[in-house]
Design goal:
alpha/beta, Rossmann fold, four-stranded parallel beta sheet
């Protein structure tokens, strides 16, 4: 597959696209829509996603656009609210008449928009985590992040290697957290692990010591696994430390951002979680095909925004890459043709891993795309397999 963004020389994109005969008038822009949680409780997801899309669309347009056509990016901020996401998806489809949608920072906002998108027949690449987004397969819906089920499997495999057989589970009671808990319950027995305490909390709860105390007092708990995103996991981590719980604490990939480490502070030391190679590019093997991709993306993002890169920025980059590659192969922005080409994505090396989709897999990542990392001295440390 052709590499669309060549770091420091995005003009090759315009040249590559111009080599393909387009079916639209060269003056017509390619319209990409997005609804993202740029503000609100999920802003640590949506803000870097928005920045990433804007940065690369600007680069492409500066270098002449695609097939001689500029890209028009239309972004709405849903604030993490499902009803707003649905409203904005409708606006993108009916008023803005976009060719393709990239977005949905959270599972809740994504799923609120899916019915509209499916009815309208617009290619949609979600940036959210839950497996329900792509299972069962929906004709027009794809996603770039690893699923919650994959996160659970990666965590349980690590626990199994450490001889852990009994754990406490704590999770948010909605959206990504609820889906993660449900998926964990489905696969945990495959690893010889028993959940002996199972607690939930609201994303708005300022304290979860009551739930963690129950877990602490449960017989035989050897580790604790939290599923959630935003401030909730940071509160769990702080309360965990305050209660002096002396077993390993695991989080999901929903906290794979330096923002989590900053929020949790010293309490985050020793926390383990599955994450993409983007958080530890310098620690990847020299032979890892992801290494040059994530190293370059991290450098470009951090130079542009003077802030730490996160896996969530990478999800948006991968979504845009996959979308534009599909348009290139389709030779137009015909929605059905682009949808078909997204589904044919094969061998794409992105920030999330090696992606190969199919009619039965609208994500295309294997469990090998995840790495186990541990927080050491306020930074990510790659755990050796």
């Amino acid at each position: 597959m052709q590499k669309l963004f060549k770091w420091g020389a995005t003009a090759v994109v315009a040249a590559g696209f111009c080599a393909v005969a387009g079916t639209a008038n060269a003056a017509d822009p390619i319209k990409i829509g997005a609804f993202l949680s740029a503000t609100g409780p999920a802003s640590f997801l949506g803000e870097p996603e928005k920045k990433t899309l804007e940065m690369y669309v600007h680069k492409l347009n500066k270098d002449g656009g695609v097939q001689g056509r500029k890209i028009e990016l239309v972004v709405y901020d849903d604030g993490g609210a499902g009803d707003k996401a649905s409203t904005f998806a409708k606006r993108l489809i009916e008023s803005d008449k976009v060719d393709l949608i990239i977005g949905g920072s959270t599972t809740a906002t994504t799923m609120a928009a899916v019915p509209l998108i499916e009815r309208a027949g617009v290619p949609f690449i979600s940036l959210a985590g839950a497996v329900v987004i792509v299972e069962p397969v929906k004709k027009w819906v794809f996603k770039t992040p690893h699923t919650d089920r994959m996160a659970a499997e990666k965590v349980f495999a690590d626990m199994q290697k450490r001889g852990i057989t009994k754990i406490g589970m704590i999770s948010e009671d909605a959206g990504f957290g609820k889906s993660g808990r449900d998926q964990s319950l489905l696969v945990v027995k495959n690893y010889g692990i028993e959940i002996v305490a199972d607690e939930v909390y609201s994303p708005k709860d300022p304290d979860v010591t009551a739930q963690l105390t129950k877990i602490k007092n449960a017989p035989g708990v050897q580790a604790v696994f939290n599923f959630g995103f935003g401030q909730g996991p940071a509160i769990v981590t702080k309360n965990f430390k305050q209660l002096g719980i002396a077993v390993p604490l695991y989080q999901s990939h929903g906290v794979a951002s330096k923002d989590f480490i900053k929020l949790a502070g010293p309490a985050a030391e020793g926390v383990r979680l599955p994450a993409a190679g983007l958080v530890v590019p310098g620690q990847l093997a020299a032979t890892d095909p992801q290494k040059p991709v994530v190293t370059a993306f991290k450098k470009e993002y951090e130079e542009a925004f003077k802030s730490d890169v996160s896996t969530f920025a990478g999800h948006a980059y991968d979504g845009l890459q996959i979308a534009l590659a599909a348009i290139l192969r389709a030779g137009s922005t015909d929605k059905a043709k682009v949808r078909d080409e997204i589904e044919k994505t094969s061998g794409y090396v992105g920030t999330g891993g090696l992606v190969s989709m199919s009619p039965t897999d609208h994500m295309g990542l294997s469990l090998s795309a995840f790495h186990m990392v541990e927080i050491k001295n306020g930074d990510w440390m790659l755990m050796k397999d």
